[in-house]
Amino acid sequence: MSERHTIAILLENEAGALSRVAGLFSARAYNIESLSVAPTEDPTVSRLTLVTSGSPEIIEQITKQLNKLVDVIRLVDLNEGRSIERELMLIKVRAAGGEQREEIKRLIDIFGGRVVDVTESTYTVELIGDGDKLNAFIETVSPKRILEVVRSGVLGILRGTKAMRA
Amino acid sequence: MSENLRGAEILCRALADEGVEYVFGYPGGAVLHIYDEVFKQDGFKHVLVRHEQGATHAADGYARATGKPGVVLVTSGPGATNCVTGIATAYMDSIPMVVFTGQVSTALIGNDAFQEVDCIGITRPCVKHNFLVERVEDLAVTIKKAFYVASSGRPGPVVVDIPKDVTANVTEYHYPESVDMRSYKPTTKGHPGQIKKALQLIENARKPMIYSGGGVILDGASEQLTEFGRLLGYPITNTLMGLGAFPGTDPQFVGMLGMHGTYEANMAMHHCDVLVAIGARFDDRVTGDLGKFCPDAKIVHIDIDPSSISKNVPVDVPIVGSVGNVLTELNRLLRADDFKAVDRADDPWWQQINEWRRLDCLKYDTDSEFIKPQGVIESMYRVTNGDAFVTSDVGQHQMWAAQYYKFDKPRRWINSGGLGTMGFGLPAAMGVQFAHPDSTVACVTGEASLVMCIQELSTCLQYDLPIKMISLNNRYMGMVRQWQEFFYESRYSHSYMDALPDFVKLAESFGHVGMRIEKPGDVDDALAEAFAMKDRLVLMDFVTDQRENVYPMIAAGKGQHEMHLAGDDRELA
């Protein structure tokens, strides 16, 4: 049984640290669905959110192998508690002519998105949500109208008072 | 009082302050500043090898024989890439090693400069950790971290890549006493609750089995293991990497287990009800088919590396901690419980094991007209009183050495178990001989492995290393030939060693003693003569039976109880 897990990692913000994480996944043939990384409020620490999938045994190995990396400071499998996941998508869609522009605008409103750039023939839309919501938006817009999609990958954080700190 | 020093000098001072005895290396452009300082200092001795791979294996052998990290110094580019096999060899067997590689100057990195390679990228998958030192101010603390990471927790090789300008730049030298790394805190003490649970299983076992590996030797825990075994009276098997952790001549020792393990060890594994795995990692060469592995056993697993636990085989009671600490605690509890060791004479489980033992699975034809490789090892065992340091290369000779030389002490049996690196034996023996200059060091090899690092015979002459090379020459890559015989209808595709050199002349041309032994009746005397030459390297070329195979054997995909024995007609495939 393959399960999807979101793993949050605090990593030393050092050259090559990210390649150790990525290299681990390719070397041991683990799946990696998305990976997002940026420095935290402490510039020596990066926060990485990684989405992977595998059997419970594989997920256990993934967390153990990640913990073994000397640059990994702390790791939490967000599936083990209640957590919030968000992803940002920027999507450029064709919107030419009054009727088409109106229809797209309504759709953006329904999904709670924002138009962040406008031309005579396109809208660039910002949409935040979990992966399902972003997928639903893409599916709803006709494929012919989609010009470009860029997604941030999932970000995750635990609910409640618990905080993950270096 | 601190002083301002150049990076090259900082490196040399730091190595001396770290207590490094030997550095195995080879100079080149990117490390010329360092070698200039090596010339001027006397804090450590530098050993000039003839190929960088030899440097890594020598440092590795030194580490295996002493428990201290081996140290390597090489140049950038090909110097670094030549080290990769040796680094991977150490990584697979968790050997502490620190490898210093030169790098082109920071301004040139990424420019495809002369002798530039991405050493950090190339070595990343086969090191415990690696560092690129970008500023001379970071050099001393990085060296300290490298030694700390390499030798703590589950040990392993660490690479420190030093650009040439960093070795020229100047900063204040201070070598830290210790380092604290927030991202690296190995667990050493076992969880008391888990230890209690394990104890309960262990004390109540009816058909127990102790399976211990290289982790016991790495942690220096042979004494604790031996006491643990004696307190219980249970049968003990060792992995290829664990030989010598429990005395090989002890009646409780049932031999090595796994693909070429003894019948009694593998049968006891298969039928046991409680398996105590200690510093072993359930390698595929040990388990055979995982679906058939220890079907009736509750498994206790003690290991310092959490990722080793339940990786291949699900475990009932995992204990994360150093095996030495955990065994000390288990021994204390066993004594507190006043546990009575099993009496081998009237214990049904021991009676069963002794019945398996009576099969005498390691017997071989002792009346052959050819020299039997097993006989050479047995003779060598007698001649050296079982007290030699024995390194080996990889293949049939390695298995025979493991089966027929009884190791009573840890760190005596030195071989490449995980990676299986041909060419390991000779340079590893150099490292062992440097570590123990007055001890007998033998290298069991074959004519195929031997030539893979043959250039190191020069190093042996330069440093007067009186190693005894026991080459079991069957004119084949024996283990390849054995598999081709069993599984490829005897099509010996490219496993035949044609155009071999005259090994006697070869040894002589390197300034050593060469001997060729062709008759079974000459084996004992030749070995006695060679080992009596205390100050010479002797290369002994034993012309052995070409058709001899290693038995017992568990074929791929078979269970531990499905061994193929010598003279057995059953189908293997």
Description:
The complex is a heterodimer of chains A (166) and B (573). By secondary structure, chain A is an alpha+beta fold. Chain A has 4 helices and 9 strands; from the N terminus they run βαββαββαββαββ. In chain A, the strands form 2 sheets. In chain A, strands 5, 6, 7, 8 and 9 form a 5-stranded antiparallel beta sheet that branches. With 573 residues, chain B is of the alpha/beta class. Helix content of chain B is 36%, strand content 17%. Chain B is built from 23 helices and 20 strands. The mean pLDDT of chain B is 96.
Characteristic key phrases:
heterodimer, A: 166 residues, alpha+beta, 5-stranded antiparallel beta sheet, 4-stranded antiparallel beta sheet, 29% helix, B: 573 residues, alpha/beta, 6-stranded parallel beta sheet
Shape of chain A: elongated
Question: How many E-type strands of chain B?
Answer: 20
Instruction: Name the poorly predicted regions of chain A.
Output: none
Largest interface: A-B, 20 and 21 residues
Radius of gyration of chain B: 24 Å
Instruction: State mean pLDDT of chain A (0 to 100 scale).
Output: 95
Write a compact overview of the structure shown.
Chain A is of the alpha+beta class. Chain A has four helices and nine strands; from the N terminus they run E-H-E-E-H-E-E-H-E-E-H-E-E. In chain A, the strands form two sheets. In chain A, strands 5, 6, 7, 8 and 9 form a five-stranded antiparallel β-sheet that branches. A four-stranded antiparallel β-sheet of chain A has the order 2-3-1-4, covered by helices on one side.
Summarize the SSE layout with pairings.
The complex is a heterodimer of chains A (166) and B (573).
Chain A: E1 3-12, H1 17-27, E2 34-39, E3 45-54, H2 56-68, E4 72-77, E5 83-94, H3 98-111, E6 114-118, E7 122-129, H4 131-140, E8 146-151, E9 155-158
Antiparallel strand pairs in A: 1-3, 1-4, 2-3, 5-7, 5-8, 5-9, 6-7
Chain B: E1 3-6, H1 7-17, E2 22-25, H2 32-40, E3 45-48, H3 52-66, E4 70-74, H4 78-81, H5 84-92, E5 97-103, H6 119-123, E6 129-132, H7 139-151, E7 157-163, H8 164-168, E8 170-173, H9 192-203, E9 208-212, H10 214-218, H11 222-232, E10 236-238, E11 253-256, H12 263-271, E12 274-278, H13 284-287, E13 298-303, E14 317-320, H14 323-336, H15 348-357, H16 373-383, E15 389-392, H17 396-404, E16 413-414, H18 425-435, E17 441-446, H19 447-450, H20 456-462, E18 468-473, H21 478-487, H22 503-509, E19 513-517, H23 523-532, E20 538-543
Parallel strand pairs in B: 2-3, 2-4, 4-5, 5-7, 6-7, 9-10, 9-12, 10-11, 12-13, 13-14, 15-16, 15-17, 17-18, 18-20, 19-20
Antiparallel strand pairs in B: 1-8
